[in-house]
């Protein structure tokens, strides 16, 4: 298994510098990661650094709270795509969802997907705030609204991915085209392989190099 090809090499810390982003992109090219995942202010820099490589560029939208207006998310998406993003990871409006405003939560996702009908949209559910029934419902809303992936976590919530939540999401996407991305707290090779074994097709982590080189003793993931 080429573990590197499952990984979105991620740097979303608020303190990330331009040099950090350049380093992230160079690491992704060296290790053959599927993509880099960055905040939207760094899309153009990452695109420039990745020029000529096969590494995809993923931008996060409405990050990390998901509480921005739909219009703001749409405009952020449009700008990220204009600057060269290949994929978008957007945070679901968790407050709308928790209010049982499922129509509002769905509209938020649909509005972003309309900007990128042929590109990959991942919808972050932030499962640490949801119980099992809510994870299933949120997964269904994302599926029906055009998501290509559903994703567990931003990495900035109270906890990240777990095998249990990923399995719930996999069950919700069974017999659909929608895939599952596990993210948040993935810091060692064994854990990464477990997620892939049960069916996750993408992993988001800032600990990518340690994972693929199995040099992950006492490592702490920031995402």
Automatic annotation (TrEMBL):
Reactions it catalyzes? 2-deoxy-D-ribose 5-phosphate = D-glyceraldehyde 3-phosphate + acetaldehyde
**Which SMART domains does its entry note?**
DeoC
Pathway it works in: Carbohydrate degradation; 2-deoxy-D-ribose 1-phosphate degradation; D-glyceraldehyde 3-phosphate and acetaldehyde from 2-deoxy-alpha-D-ribose 1-phosphate: step 2/2
Q: Which Pfam families match?
A: DeoC
Sorted keywords for this record are: Cytoplasm, Lyase, Schiff base
The subcellular location is: Cytoplasm
Q: Which GO terms describe its biological process?
A: 2-deoxyribose 1-phosphate catabolic process; carbohydrate catabolic process; deoxyribonucleotide catabolic process
Give this protein's Gene Ontology molecular function annotations: deoxyribose-phosphate aldolase activity
Give the EC number(s) under which this enzyme is classified.
4.1.2.4
Task: Please indicate if the UniProt record lists Thylakoid as a keyword.
Answer: no
Catalytic residues as annotated in Swiss-Prot or TrEMBL: 89 (proton donor/acceptor), 151 (schiff-base intermediate with acetaldehyde), 181 (proton donor/acceptor)
Enzyme's top EC category:
lyase
The UniProt entry lists the main location of this chain as cytoplasm
Which GO cellular component term is one of those annotated? cytoplasm
What PANTHER family does this protein's entry cite?
Answer: DEOXYRIBOSE-PHOSPHATE ALDOLASE
Tell me, what does this protein do in biology? Answer: Catalyzes a reversible aldol reaction between acetaldehyde and D-glyceraldehyde 3-phosphate to generate 2-deoxy-D-ribose 5-phosphate.
Family designation:
Belongs to the DeoC/FbaB aldolase family. DeoC type 1 subfamily.
Question: Under what name is this protein listed?
Answer: Deoxyribose-phosphate aldolase
Record organism: Bizionia saleffrena
Which gene is annotated as encoding this protein in its UniProt record? deoC
